[in-house]
Structures are given as C-alpha cells and as structure tokens.
Write a structure and sequence with these properties.
By secondary structure, this protein is an alpha/beta fold. Helix content is 42%, strand content 11%. The chain has one domain. The longest helix has 17 residues. The N and C termini lie close together (7 Å).
Length: 173
C-alpha cells in the first residue's frame, strides 16, 4: 500500500513531460465579489477551472490548465480517468486561482469573499515556469494543483484511503 500511495503522489510529477496546450483562455464568467479580481478563465475537462488575474501571462495560465488536464486524464483521451473524482470536483466547483502576488487586492478579495469548498491551494505568478514542469523550486504548478485535486476529490471520494483523519490508509502508511 505504501508503494501505491507513493506512486499515486509522485508519478504524476515525473510523468508530465509533454505540455501541449489545447485550451483557450476565456473572459472570466464566474460572478461574485470573490472572483472580481480575475479576468482570465480556462475550463479543464468540465470539472476543474483556472482563474487568473490580467497580469498573469497567458502561457502560465495555459500551463496550469495543461497540468490539471494531465493529472485528471492520464491517457489524454479527453475524459477524466475517474468518473467519481470528476463528479466530486464538479459538484464542489474545483478551481485553481492564480494571483500575481501574495496579499494583493485580488487575493484579499478572494480570501474575504470566497465561500466554496473547491480550493485547497493557490498559485502565484513567480511559482509557475512552463519550461520546467514540476521541477522543485522552479515550478509549483503540479504540486499546488494536485493539492486541490486530492483534497477536494480523493479525500471525499475515497476517505478510507485518503482521509486526513487517523486510521486512513494515507495516515497509517
């Protein structure tokens, strides 16, 4: 079980070498004060979305979308590999916000007004390097997106294995 958990959490980090981007950035359609600081939006496989401030380069926004897609659809057939995870992420409106700086106006507004359960991590402009996907110290995209997928998805769909509570397979590994 320990080997399975290790592979589940580390294999995607090393397996994301290809970063072909097939997404488009749309104007942010999400209403509400919490999302007022975001102008960019990318839907990822209908169950996860990226929102970003206008100051985030498009290449970084698309990189985050590509990483999320690879983590959710390992065989790249355009379908989320686990329908239960897809359903859970959809029901919680799972997302990855990208901020230019820690503590800026967009971040403060989001933190003060967001009331959902779809976020477990955020990305900052300086943490994203599309040329070094997942490379420790250069690109935190894989790490931060997998935090959200795991927390919003896996811990709810598979609590016996991934719960943060004592006695789950994850906690006893």
């Amino acid at each position: 079980m320990k080997k399975l958990l290790f592979l589940l959490f580390t294999l995607p980090i090393f397996g994301i070498a290809q970063n072909t981007v097939c997404f488009t950035i749309d104007p942010n359609p999400v209403n509400g004060i919490a999302f007022s600081g975001f102008t960019k939006y990318v839907d990822v496989l209908g169950c996860f979305f990226i929102v970003a401030e206008s100051t985030i380069p498009d290449a970084k926004v698309l990189h985050a979308a590509a990483v999320a897609a690879e983590l959710l659809d390992n065989n790249e057939d355009g379908i989320v590999d686990d329908p239960l995870i897809e359903s859970q992420l959809t029901s919680e409106s799972a997302l990855m916000p990208i901020f230019y700086d820690d503590g800026n106006t967009a971040m403060n507004t989001f933190e003060n007004y967001y009331q959902g359960d779809g976020v477990s991590a955020v990305l900052y402009n300086f943490e994203i390097d599309p040329t070094q996907t997942g490379h420790w110290g250069d690109d935190a995209t894989v790490e931060e997106i997998i935090h959200t997928i795991n927390h919003v998805g896996h811990t709810n769909v598979y609590p016996a294995a991934f719960s943060m509570q004592p006695n789950s397979s994850l906690m006893t590994a």
